[in-house]
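Run folding on both entries below.
>entry_1
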Amino acid sequence: MDRAAMWQALDSERTATAGLLESLTPAEWEHASLCAGWRVREVAAHLTLGPEMGIGGAIVEFARARGSFNRVVDNTSRRKATVPTEQLVADLRRHVGSRRLAPGQTLADALMDVQVHTQDIAVPLGRDHPMALDAALASADHLWGMWFPFRPRRRLRGFRLTATDVDWSVGDGAEISGPIAALLPLLAGRTATLSKLTGAGVTALS
């Protein structure tokens, strides 16, 4: 995908995620997400923060977190999660059309982030949240090439991942196949979508 198509895909994903969030009950907002230690509201809060973070704010947050990227993400998301859920939805909608990225973030990072984190919300709630195949494919390629923080090439060494709904395959070894929307969370370190995948590699990975 070229940059224009990626920005359009990001806008579409944010719009769809805002719609999902808007449909949640109060109990679902408090439900555990696929992100360890985060409820749905912390994940939603995280998705609003990228376009809001400037360089100055990032420097302050890294100082508070003693240089830890993971602590920055956790601290900022937990603080933002205290606002009313209506504001979280409104803020995410407000970022549709924004062309701002968090300091150090690439456009590919931002697209992948919203796709994976929306599944972190939808999957444990039993909600089906489809992804645009071209955007999911771009994010799968991006994740496979990443080192920090997911390390998929090392973590999934000995497995071959094959999408059944788009032309995409990586790795060598025991087969894991299924929809690209189920493979994407796996690439990002989640195992909750294994039930949607098939092949000898699923049993071995489980």
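>entry_2
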Amino acid sequence: MVKWIVVYSSVTGNTRKLAEVAAREMGADLLNVQEIIGSADIREEDDEESVSIDVCRNSLAISSETLDRKLEEKLSGYDGVMVGYWLRKGAPDRKSSILLSRISGKKVALFQTHGAYDGTEHTITAFARAGSMLGPGNRILGTFSCQGAVNPALIKRRLEGSVPGHRGEDLEACKKRWADAATRPNENDLQRMADFAKKMKATAERE
């Protein structure tokens, strides 16, 4: 039997809600990435649309060797790892990026939350970036994407024009998207995650 752990990163609670559903459906352990990487101050840029896949192994207040050891301790007993993250610059948030780069030899499922509409190029290409960050020897079994409420502090800065890279954007279209995102994840999204988690569990058992 494949033993799973769900590891997630969440700021506004969107990713956490989905992670809790996934862990329940899979009978998996649940872990916040903070419990591995800690509360080191990693600057997350405000720009939610532009692309960056740079992952620095030494961008934390703890050493690379210490982090590798902590990850080995936390993940060594699991065959499958489901990683949930929120999108930053079209890629997983910084702490999740560092986590992904250190996962190796596992069956992996990825899920992400974002302010963009589902199925857009922004969300689809983000999975390719997440996959490219993974360490060696992993097998990605599936992906799940869900729109989620945008951090109000970010919306405030966007409206003030203080976020670089967004000058000249259609703010009315952004306001509508933010309003739509504020209702997510909804009950339908949580059920979709439950179905996805069951599928990942069954897929892993067949392989």
